[in-house]
Amino acid sequence: MSINLQQSMLEEIEVELKRQVARLDQARTKPFHEMLTYHMGWTGEGAGSQATGKRIRPLITLLSVYSVDGKDKGKSIEVNWLHAVSAAAAIELVHNFSLVHDDIQDNSEYRRGRKTAWVKWGAPMAINAGDALFVIANQSVLDLKTHYPAEMVVRAAGILNDICLQLTQGQYMDMSYEERTDLSMEDYWPMIGGKTSALLSACTQIGALLGYANEEKVELYRQFGYTLGLAFQVQDDILGIWGDESVTGKSAASDLVEGKNSLPVLYALEKNGDFAKRWRQGPIPQAEVGAAAVMLENEGGKSYAEKMSAELTQKALGYLNQADPQGEAGEAIRGLANMLLKRKQ
Amino acid sequence: MSINLQQSMLEEIEVELKRQVARLDQARTKPFHEMLTYHMGWTGEGAGSQATGKRIRPLITLLSVYSVDGKDKGKSIEVNWLHAVSAAAAIELVHNFSLVHDDIQDNSEYRRGRKTAWVKWGAPMAINAGDALFVIANQSVLDLKTHYPAEMVVRAAGILNDICLQLTQGQYMDMSYEERTDLSMEDYWPMIGGKTSALLSACTQIGALLGYANEEKVELYRQFGYTLGLAFQVQDDILGIWGDESVTGKSAASDLVEGKNSLPVLYALEKNGDFAKRWRQGPIPQAEVGAAAVMLENEGGKSYAEKMSAELTQKALGYLNQADPQGEAGEAIRGLANMLLKRKQ
Asked: Which chain B residues contact residue A176 at CB under 8 A?
């Protein structure tokens, strides 16, 4: 039953995303439109469900909407999740705008097994394609006006843009850390807060808002999303070093080769032992990566990150319990959270 | 008197822009904030009024607000232009976001005599700085909620984002034209419509809206701004080839060296004479530029563009007369339009 609900939501999300992106489907800008449909996974080589990604953010948004008891505010509002689909699309568009620009910034040639936009069309065109995705994200969230009072539209658009500013701040920190050798763990949380957690908090916060939750409940949903993002990212950091290649699809310890400032690494840098010395000497080649991972584990980087991941998971699930999502969507959101937090164990 | 009004407006615009950009002035993102304050012309080498640009767009926005007779809608609304200053700032921020990304896309090393953001901080950081300017533009326009009903805020944000999509479309056309040799004049208008006119139309349209103009008057203001933009761009194209170096500050005919698809050039390409043959053979070096400009003039490129510029100027002033801007701000907006349309004659 819950599978059917999620399936319906995912289908409506895809329809809405295509409708929004079709704003560029005009006589003179068809190839421009195609850049966006390619990046979104709908057209070009390798198009299909592998290429689109899981649309987890818009799904969490709609599940949040539908899981709120609309009677919270003392009114008997029948919440129709379909009314919020343009906000769900907006969040997915923001996510994709940031991916297109990230790929240029990180010089990444592949995403989800396909060439990135800048590789196909050059950086100038890809910068512009990312800009267009962000503009369309804003247009999408403003489309809420068809079904919601203007005050709620302004609030949702405000939350979305506040979070986008956090995204740019997280991105700034991430890029500026590349040149720094004096990083510690306190540099970690604001960075992943901006890069990962902020957008997940937008899903649950805007979702609860559009489900007509009261202020207290909106805040609990927001905290759930934010903490879920932190827990997820820490887990991702662990998998990026000690993950099972056959499960993660990335070569093991690839985060060490790429020099990523993950939580285990920052923990070891703060301890300033042998791993820190090696790290500061420059890039770790593939041949040395196994030994480096063992060194990092021996210095406590793995167990510290696992402890943090477990704590954050408990915290996230605690907020979720307090938020008390209702019905079929509530079950689905609990299931999804558990899946995200327990993957690959 | 009118000078004092414009001076007050320009001062309030600058205060508001600084206030908006200060969203990034936080402990961990101070150098990121500095990228924006540098680009905006407030800090770093060469900071000052030469570096900020003229803030013509936000000024036109506030003059539009204040020049509307607030009684249009049958209500006696005393229009306070200061209430609209965050929308004026939003438009200037959009303009600057597009400049930061344009400079990367065009590989431009200098703007207003200063190094561009990507030259100072690298393209990845500059992409992110442009993104942040656009986010802050959206936050600024949503700040209208302090003084305007939510319905008007949603409408203003909607207009702004619709125009931003046109900006990305104009930019796409401009970049894609670089590879094409089959261009004609019908390719010109949609490109400059998106790149130049759209944002000017946002100034006058949003301005009139926030001045509580009726729908008919909002539309006249919009058409005035749009046509003003077209006329201005055609004139800019003429000056870019036949302008007086000592007045324009650019080397004469530099648009020919840069291979810009300006209106005189597209006219000649459509005529397919000697100039067109030469143009299609590749870049025109500085030494050949005088002869190329004469050839283009002889084939009618200059007189055609002058005719179009005169026609568009009449059309723009016609819309302005119909819009009938009132009082001191009305005088100022007429003066500004005449200045923009008659410069360097």
From this structure: 31-32
